[in-house]
Specification:
- It is a single chain.
- The chain has two helices and no strands.
- The protein is mainly alpha-helical and 60 residues long.
- The chain has one domain.
């Protein structure tokens, strides 16, 4: 998730206050909805990440 903004990492970085507030509400609602049994996994595409998958997949 990202926040739409301008001039990131500069002294004049800007974001719309209402968008920031809504992003906070969305992230809060999501984190409050996560249960202990929920599992989050990264699924990498073999076509896009063959070397990464070779490195983390045990030999058969």
């Amino acid at each position: 998730m990202s926040l739409p903004l301008r001039y990131m990492h500069s002294v004049v970085e800007m974001a719309h206050l209402q968008v920031v507030e809504h992003t906070i509400q969305l992230l809060t609602a999501f984190t409050e909805s996560v249960k202990a049994k929920d599992v989050f996994r990264v699924k990498l595409s073999p076509r896009l990440f063959p070397r990464v998958l070779d490195a983390i997949t045990p030999d058969s």
